[in-house]
Amino acid sequence: SLTIEIRIVQTGAVKNTGTWQTLPSDDFTVTVQEADGALVYRWVLKPGLTVPAGRHEFAAQFNNGTGVRRAAGDGYRVDAQGSGGSASVRGGFVPTR
Question: In whole angstroms, what is the distance from residue 2 CA to residue 45 CA?
Answer without folding.
Answer: 5
